[in-house]
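Lecture notes, structural biology module. Today: joint structure prediction for complexes of two components.
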Amino acid sequence: MKWDTYKTRAIELALNLAPLALALVFTTALLIATGAPPFEAYTRIVEGAFGSVSKFSDVLIAVVPLLLCAAGLLITFTAGQWNIGIEGQIIAGAIATTWFARAFDLPPLIYLPLLFFAGALAGALWATLAGMLKVYGKVHEIFGGLGLNFIASGIVLYLIFGPWKQPGIASMSGTEFFRKSAWLPTLGEFEISPLALAVALLALALVYFSLRSTRWGLELKAVGKNLRAAYWLGIPTNRRLLGAFALCGACAGIAGATQALGVYHRLLPAISSGYGYLAILVVLLTGFRAVWILPVAIFFAAVVKGSLQLPLAMQLDSSLGGVLQGALVLAVLLFQGVRARWSK
Amino acid sequence: MNVELLHIHKQFGAVRANDDVSITFAPGAIHGLLGENGAGKSTLMKILSGFQPPDAGEILLDGTAAITTPPAQAIARGVGMLHQDPLDFPPLRVAENFQLGLHPQFLLTPARARRELREIAARFDFDLDPDAPVARLSVGERQQLEIARLLARGARVLILDEPTTGISASQKTKLFAALTRLAQDGMTIIFVSHKLADVQTLCDRVTVLRRGQVAGEMQKPLNDQQLVQMMFGKALTALRKPVMTLGENILELENIAIDDQRLSLSGVSLAVRAGEVIGLAGLEGSGQRPFLRVAAGLDAPRAGSVRLAGKAMTRQSYLEFRAQGVAYLPAARLEEGLVAGLSLAEHFILADKARGVFIDANAAHADAARGIAVFQIRGAPATRVENLSGGNQQRALLALLPRSLKLLLMEHPTRGLDVESTAWVWERLLERRAHGTAIVFASSDLDEILERSDRILVFSGGNVTRALTTSETSVAQLGELIGGRSL
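The predicted structure, tokenised, for the full assembly:
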């Protein structure tokens, strides 16, 4: 290899790492300003995430919904759509799964698949609603999605405090626990469900492959880059857009199902835990490249779980993790903008 | 105010929009500025009204050299322009609009503004309700508002860009009366138009621009024939084409009515037979584009019926039309036809509907290489379409058209191509025609229309002629029809 190629690669690498450095500098400055020792804080985060096998299993629990949502968002982003409504779609999935879990008790071999299916279906329907508002009602998907998120949260609260309240008391802690047969099986003493993780990885792999190697994926890309030209080329653009929303919603719905079945074993108001929004950041951070989704999702989940140690050990608020994530995404986007200007 | 433009030059890339243009506009008269699309009228008027500076040349206002950019400077010096699409604020009310930029102190003086608006409106018999939202006004009323605003701001030179397009007959009468009165009061009126009839009625003096240069000037009385000749250059000779045996009716339009933003066409009927070529002549924006879009199924007509090879297709979608063997070649290649960011090979995959679910990268590459060779596109299968030159993008669009077609509709199929590429494109098109494809195309190049079409429809401000047989039509006739004269 020539010296020049080395040089370009080095510059490339520096440009890729610069945003991370910038975000760390920002968070460190923030820690110093509040009088907290930065190095200790970072060590706590890393230990909180990777300090033991059981801690890492907690990280993986957060990775599951992040992967599912990021996989779905790859589809809608490819179609040029900002599916902010993904939070509501997670909730819709969790609601449908809860309903199914409460209404039926079936043999395990078909019970779990049907529970997942119920979540996927509800998520897809909720997302299709946002898609139809966009395609037929000319409502921008960001506004439509935001509205539908509020409605979904409202429905959850109504269900928890109304028809599905615990006998005697209605509380923010949610519904009663599901019957044990509706709990996702876990691995030994750890709380991670291997099944949920496998489903998430499978979803990501499927999306990656479909976007890359199928005609449908290419058509979706064309729709996202130039709707009019895609139509000119004979692509049924409305159907593709609605399909993209539905598939993303299905992924989000499955994420909702895993949250209800595998993590909380019940429906509660914060069932989505903000993983939908966080997944948007994950996808933005990867620059819409599927191969980077897994490592970035693990990193984000590690920051989320690791920063939970801060209040316990250092009397710092765990929101520091969120600050770090947000700063990182902003720094990455900033550097993309700087680069685009440079290369002009 | 006396306006002198001296040796104005303006170049955009390789195009000389204004090439040493010198014109004097005298006060107290209505001065017409006539010319085809792209003749340089708009560029010249944008320079005078301060939207862009000239590359070289001088503007003299009452004998003193003046810089008129930006537009605020122009209006401060008394030069006001009424744009073809009025530069107003549709969400505001008439009175609010009128006030904008009028009295530049911190606090608004709405009562004073309303009084001024009422006075001007009464003087010219304009029908302006100060409380009406601008969005609900007709184009004619928006023009009246804009004229009132320019007058209130002290305009002594009034430039009107195609003001008679899209307004009603009574509004036109009012507009002409107002302009005549303003000229009598000593204002300088510059009337930019391509409509011979309007220029005849209104103007005292006319300057014709052609390809960026002054082609000639004429005082009243104005002679149509001479004006047409100045606009389009020396008379063209129509070529005799080999006679084709025409097949069955492919496209039948009956009593079509179309509403576009400013135009409405109605009562248009046309039958196109297999192997026939129809040219749509007329200045750009006279209704050719909405007409083609309706024929392609991209828009639905307001009234009337569309049939394809005998099959009723009214209000079917473009995808249905496509399935029936209709293709449409848009003028804006990178906006409406090609997907920037995708490669040529990817376009070939998307255009080829026969293939299965999975993409065979090697086959796609081979397909693209073949298309690139046949259509002589300067690019590789992996080249992104936005990196192709305009001419090669056009070749790519042609290469992406389905193999067998019943009807091919095209907007400016050879715009921006050099002579050689143009000839090559038409060779390909005539091959299709020989296989029975009917072709309907719009062009602003009269030579192209006369040379290639069997019959011609002339569009002028929303009016459409019946189909004229090319061999029986003279250039002079076409010029007059384009200028809005009826046969």
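Point to remember: The mean pLDDT of chain A is 91.
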